Task: inverse folding
């Protein structure tokens, strides 16, 4: 199939427009993060800092408990990812291998839970966690993040379990291995890459999450990065732009890194699945 | 299986870390020592320093009652306190403003300090200030700092135009103010720039001078909104300055106070109505040679009266050591300490002794004008009305913003404030 | 449990779309009816996930619906009472809530439609053999990976009236450029919608791209040989194959956008004058600023109900539209 040169040129122009639209806010964030205060106060901002500096990063660390917040985020996100995968894997196994009423109900829940506005959930959740004395505590937030990331963890894992041939398990069962033994020694190792991708995805989700952290965490020492960043914006809505940009830039890096790691896997398996289907 | 072991170690480490993170934030410990968490909203560098120093001094003097400084933020204080109180995780001593206390006081989250406060404090702070923290006969906070709204003026522009310069003894009337701003305008310059990002408190508080009250309590104690003649004067003046006279800048209506400063420094605006504490930013940021002065806000039928919502210190109902907490407040609000806090925040102290301090009476930076206004300050209208915050955010703020920008007229403004407003208030007064 | 916020949720949507598609032909395989009868294993395996789901998702949901019929408020001085449908009656008269609801619909549609069109365009481009495709693919993922809070901050910097690049660019091009985008009454909602479109494009693009790669290439080539133009090829070959994916992702986007919170919270916090106060923000404030838990829960219920109805209408209409052709 040949495309006419004019059409081709149009396609490139369109692609370029997309590239600009997608990239420019991020470029601007980075540029602001490296600009000295004097340049930020000037009237005619430029794309590239004339005099790049790390002062904003230093100031962000000095004036805000950035490290503490990053640590909180790291802890909750890792814990949430590990727990989510730990509880989701057996359930996904059941959902993939058994057509019981339970599995159907779980699938239904996964779908329905996507449609609910979380405000209807957060109010009662807040009251429940209050009774469990889990408000303003990182373990409480971890629990919420776990349940919150379960739907997609189940979806992803169910797909991966289906990709493992059931015959392998049956062979192990014939050899006399118990159900649990089969799961642990045969299925899980085969699932490992899928479990890892799911865990990383859950990690990014929890790392980026804002709403629950905003409602549930109260004391400054407990807050996660996104919550801290919104505090940065300040009472009058006119924060120090430089340090704000610097902190926001730093908070994005882990997500971008993890995403770069699993992106190929996600889109890859997506595309493979699509083509096969 | 070594990957498995590694995962297990990782899980263990994270669990342990979470546990530690959870424990380190505990409040009172069991070693007989009392620890009080004090959430301060101080944000300007000088006032944060002053507050922290005072906390350190207290801790040095009272090894058994340790006060822990927690940094809060004005930005989200209401949401943050509400959810903390509800979740049982509130700090012991809470810094806030009197117009934000009603829901917490009525909701039983704050301790009634009536029988706890020392005589020294109750007699030092005037009754009008105490009124602003009194809800249903209980006292739910100690008002300690307040700021009148003043006009910050470009001295050169005033001199050049030859208008009469007002003083607290002989202020402008609202009509005179309008006339003056007209004279000061022209050539792309404006007599005044109203920073009305938060139009409600500015409008309501200044309206006291024109005899406005807006909130009316009936015999059964139910509150309704009525927008009457006295309530109209201030909004109408502003709207005419913007719309008819072009003597007020139309672009600053959505701005915060600090956003108007560059225009003031550049000579674009001759005057900006601002809170007294903005003087600090002006003193710091004004370019070399820029001369400025503080003028009283215009007066009306109600004289120079204007509403204020003093900053307050309250004790949480859940605090197990209320006596100790009040003792700390007593220390923090000793006259000389109150002066330090006031200087740090560039505000007026409520205490009579502190207010008499010479440091707060110098003409430099307009301190003297502010202190002369202190006796005219009244509790902001409606701050004891339940549901006021919701009325303010959802009804009054948008209605006033649209009115000032010319999108709606006075009739529609009245309708919204009254009809929509009373619906909101009714929900709180069942 | 309500799912992740829109940007995040894309992943499982996309996964779910294709997982469903991928698993369809295999599904009958492993499950053997005979084995299920004596099978007590699953309960044991399901329990670790089931308990948190019941305690922290299903339970709270039911509790939330119950709350809508009470006068639950913050504070401990007054006991919570059943008040029947009083909250809903109040809500009917609450013009502010319905205004917010209208804004929410404008926002949801205003974001979802351009999002879909732009994503479709990008997906079609990425499906071509173009240079620089790798760059676009990598970039298309970036908004997806970013925390929503950072997205909001980033665009605040972009929109900043003095220090922002948008006004500066407009100034350079001679279009004035002294607008305060996020606090102007007229510009705030459109400005926020642009951010919504930007943030939600990646997952829509990826889902559509997956759908595109699913269209049989031979058909395309046959159509080309027949002399069909690009537009006809798209209508007769590409679109029919893409339709199920497009429908699913649009429906999901619509829901997620309607429920979105963090972006607007950071960008405008509902201002100016409530012009960008989405229903989620409205309900959040009702609950956690004003402490009206019961009333806020009633809002949540109404939001769910209205959205379900709209969605049902949309899906039924679309599906029927498909049958007629």
Result:
């Amino acid at each position: 199939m040949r495309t006419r040169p004019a059409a081709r040129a149009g396609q490139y122009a369109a692609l370029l427009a997309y590239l600009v639209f997608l990239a420019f806010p991020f470029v601007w964030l980075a540029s602001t993060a490296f600009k000295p205060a004097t340049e930020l106060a000037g009237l005619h901002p430029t794309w590239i800092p004339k005099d790049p500096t790390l002062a904003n990063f230093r100031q962000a660390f000095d004036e805000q408990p950035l490290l503490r917040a990053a640590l909180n985020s790291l802890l909750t996100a890792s814990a949430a990812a590990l727990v989510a995968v730990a509880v989701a894997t057996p359930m996904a196994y059941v959902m993939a291998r058994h057509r019981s009423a339970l599995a159907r109900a779980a699938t239904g829940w996964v779908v329905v839970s996507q449609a609910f506005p979380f405000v209807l959930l957060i109010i009662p959740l807040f009251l429940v966690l209050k009774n469990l004395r889990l408000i303003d505590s990182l373990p409480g937030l971890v629990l919420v993040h776990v349940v919150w990331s379960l739907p997609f963890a189940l979806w992803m894992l169910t797909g991966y379990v289906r990709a493992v041939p059931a015959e392998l398990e049956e062979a192990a069962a014939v050899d006399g291995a118990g159900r649990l033994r089969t799961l642990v020694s045969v299925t899980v190792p085969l699932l490992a890459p899928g479990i890892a991708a799911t865990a990383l995805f859950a990690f990014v989700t929890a790392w980026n999450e804002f709403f629950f952290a905003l409602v549930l965490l109260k004391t400054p020492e407990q807050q996660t990065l996104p919550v801290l960043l919104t505090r940065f914006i300040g009472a009058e809505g006119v924060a120090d732009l430089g340090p704000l940009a610097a902190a926001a830039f730093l908070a994005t890096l882990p997500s971008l890194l993890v995403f770069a790691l699993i992106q190929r896997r996600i889109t890859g398996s997506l595309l493979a699945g699509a083509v096969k289907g | 299986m070594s990957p498995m072991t590694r995962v297990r170690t990782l899980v263990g480490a994270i669990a342990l870390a979470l546990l530690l993170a959870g424990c380190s934030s505990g409040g009172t410990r069991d070693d007989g020592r009392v620890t009080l968490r004090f959430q301060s909203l101080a944000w300007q560098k000088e006032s944060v320093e002053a507050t922290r120093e005072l906390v350190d001094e207290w801790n040095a003097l009272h090894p058994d009652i340790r006060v822990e400084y927690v940094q809060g933020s004005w930005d989200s204080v209401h949401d943050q306190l509400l959810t903390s109180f509800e979740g049982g995780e509130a700090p012991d001593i809470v810094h806030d403003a009197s117009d934000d206390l009603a829901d917490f006081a009525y909701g039983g989250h704050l301790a009634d300090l009536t029988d706890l406060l020392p005589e020294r404090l109750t007699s030092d702070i005037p009754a009008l200030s105490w009124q602003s923290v009194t809800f249903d006969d209980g006292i739910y906070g100690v008002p300690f700092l307040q700021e009148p709204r003043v006009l910050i003026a470009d001295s050169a522009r005033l001199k050049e135009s030859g208008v009469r310069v007002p003083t607290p003894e002989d202020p402008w009337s609202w009509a005179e103010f309008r006339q003056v701003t007209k004279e000061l305008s022209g050539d792309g310059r404006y007599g005044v720039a109203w920073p009305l990002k938060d139009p409600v408190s500015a409008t309501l508080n200044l309206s006291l001078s024109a005899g406005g009250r807006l909130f009316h309590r009936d015999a059964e104690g139910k509150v309704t909104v009525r927008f009457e003649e006295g309530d109209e004067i201030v909004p109408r003046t502003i709207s005419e300055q913007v719309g008819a006279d072009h003597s007020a800048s139309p672009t600053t209506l959505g701005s915060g106070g600090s956003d108007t400063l560059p225009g003031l420094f550049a000579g674009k605006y001759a005057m900006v109505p601002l809170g007294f504490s903005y003087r600090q930013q002006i003193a710091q940021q004004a370019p070399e040679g820029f001369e400025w002065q503080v003028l009283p806000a215009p007066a009306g039928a109600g004289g120079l009266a204007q509403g204020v919502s003093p900053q307050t210190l309250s004790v949480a109902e859940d605090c197990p050591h209320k006596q100790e907490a009040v003792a700390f407040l007593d220390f923090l609000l000793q006259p000389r300490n109150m002066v330090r806090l006031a200087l740090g925040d560039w505000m007026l102290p409520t205490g009579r002794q502190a207010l008499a301090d010479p440091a707060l009476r110098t003409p430099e930076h307009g301190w003297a004008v502010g202190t002369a206004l202190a006796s005219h300050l009244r509790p902001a209208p409606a701050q004891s009305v339940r549901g006021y915050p919701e009325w303010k955010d959802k009804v009054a703020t948008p209605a006033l913003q649209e009115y000032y920008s010319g999108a709606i007229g006075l009739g529609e403004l009245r309708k919204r404030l009254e009809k929509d407003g009373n619906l909101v208030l009714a929900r709180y007064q069942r | 449990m309500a799912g992740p916020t829109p940007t995040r949720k894309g992943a499982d949507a996309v996964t779910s779309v294709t997982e469903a598609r991928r698993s369809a032909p295999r599904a009958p395989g492993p499950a053997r009816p005979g084995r299920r009868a004596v099978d007590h294993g699953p309960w044991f395996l399901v329990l670790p996930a089931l308990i948190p789901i019941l305690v922290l998702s299903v339970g709270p949901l039911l509790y939330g619906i119950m709350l809508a019929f009470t006068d639950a408020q913050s504070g401990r001085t007054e006991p919570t009472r059943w008040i029947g449908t009083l909250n809903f009656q109040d809500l009917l008269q609450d013009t502010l809530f319905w205004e917010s609801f209208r804004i929410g619909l404008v926002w949801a549609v205003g974001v979802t439609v351009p999002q879909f069109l732009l994503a479709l365009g990008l997906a079609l481009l990425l499906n071509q053999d173009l240079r620089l495709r790798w760059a676009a693919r990598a970039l298309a993922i970036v908004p997806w990976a970013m925390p929503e809070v950072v997205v909001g901050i980033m665009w605040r910097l972009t929109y900043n009236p003095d220090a922002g690049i948008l006004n500066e660019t407009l100034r350079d091009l001679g279009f004035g450029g002294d607008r305060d985008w996020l606090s102007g009454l007229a510009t705030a909602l459109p400005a926020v919608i642009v951010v919504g479109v930007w943030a939600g494009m990646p997952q829509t693009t990826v889902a559509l791209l997956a759908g595109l790669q699913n269209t049989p290439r031979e058909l395309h080539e046959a159509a080309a040989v027949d002399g069909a133009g690009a537009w006809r090829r798209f209508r007769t070959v590409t679109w029919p194959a893409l339709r199920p994916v497009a429908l699913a992702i649009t429906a999901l986007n619509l829901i997620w956008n309607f429920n979105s919170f963090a972006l607007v919270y950071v960008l405008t916090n509902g201002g100016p004058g409530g012009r960008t106060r989405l229903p989620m923000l409205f309900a959040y404030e009702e609950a956690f600023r004003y402490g009206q838990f019961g009333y806020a829960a009633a809002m949540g219920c109404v939001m769910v109900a209205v959205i379900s109805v709209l969605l049902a209408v949309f899906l039924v209409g679309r599906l029927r539209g498909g049958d007629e052709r």
